[in-house]
Each structure stands twice: as C-alpha cells, then as structure tokens.
C-alpha cells in the first residue's frame, strides 16, 4: 500500500466513524443501535411484536404527521407483527399488548421520545424483553424492523 492509499483509507475510516458518531449523538436517549435491533429481531423471530405508539390525531400529536407520511400505521397486510397502541402523553399511559410478559417487543414513535416512555411503561407493567427502536426518523434503526 502506498502512502497515498494509506492516507485515503485512514480518511475513509475517520469519515465513517464521524458519521456513526454523529448519527448516534443525534439519536434520542434510549434508542437502541441498529446492531442491537438487528440481533434482537433475529433472536426474536416470529415472536417479535412491534408496538407503534404514534397518534394519528394531528390536534394531539402534530409531530407524528411527518413520520406517518413516511411509514403508515400497522394494518391488515401491512406491518403484520406490529400493533398500534397509542402512548398518551397527558396521562402517561397506554394500552398493554395482549402478549406474554417475556415476548420480544420493540416500541417506536416517530423518533424515539415516546418510544422510550412506552418501553419504560411496559417494563413497569412486567414486560421483560423490550427495546426502543426510535422510529422512521431513525432510518438506520427503522430498516431493521420497520416492515415487520
């Protein structure tokens, strides 16, 4: 390897690290990394449940409209492993999924804030295997589970 090739390679490695660090620093607290999500999805297999906590009512959660334009709510035939259970900021509550307490669950909203609140809420109610996946705004995370 020539000196120029070595410098280009080092610059590429530094650029990748900078990009990854920037992405992680912009990720909301509690949002799992793409690597964590990939491993979780793989180990969960068909038992995986995705809990979408977004609210389609723009008068209550206007910020959800952007993420809903990118990825719709779960429905028959679309995102078959997902359930739509709205996390209500005013009451800090949400419906509980009708699954066993050890079911692998990924919570998400648009970018991770309410996804973390939902994760905490589920864990406080006895669910033991929960990750916060962020949401469509976290494209690198979303690609690991968004179509499930």
Automatic annotation (TrEMBL):
Which SUPFAM superfamilies does this entry report, sorted A to Z?
A: Rhodanese/Cell cycle control phosphatase
Q: Where is the Rhodanese domain?
A: 44-138
Please give the InterPro entries that the UniProt record associates with this protein.
Answer: Rhodanese-like_dom, Rhodanese-like_dom_sf
> What CDD domains does the entry give?
RHOD (cd00158)
Which parts of the sequence are annotated with region: Disordered? 92-111
Can you tell me which residues the record assigns to a coiled coil?
Answer: none
Annotated PROSITE patterns: RHODANESE_3
Official protein name in the record: Rhodanese domain-containing protein
- What does the record give as the organism's lineage? Eukaryota, Sar, Stramenopiles, Ochrophyta, Bacillariophyta
């Amino acid at each position: 390897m020539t000196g120029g090739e070595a410098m280009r390679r080092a610059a590429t490695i530094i650029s990748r690290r900078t990009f990854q660090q920037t992405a992680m620093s912009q990720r909301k607290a509690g949002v799992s990394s793409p690597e964590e999500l990939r491993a979780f999805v793989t180990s969960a297999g068909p038992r995986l449940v995705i809990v979408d906590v977004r609210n389609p009512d723009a008068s209550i959660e206007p910020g959800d409209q952007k993420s809903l334009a990118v990825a719709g709510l779960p429905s028959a035939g679309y995102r078959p492993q997902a359930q739509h259970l709205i996390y209500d900021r005013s009451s800090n509550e949400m419906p509980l999924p009708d699954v066993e307490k050890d079911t692998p669950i990924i919570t998400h909203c648009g970018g991770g804030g309410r996804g973390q609140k939902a994760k905490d809420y589920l864990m406080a109610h006895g669910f033991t295997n929960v990750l916060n996946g962020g949401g469509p705004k976290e494209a690198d995370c979303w690609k690991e589970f968004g179509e499930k």
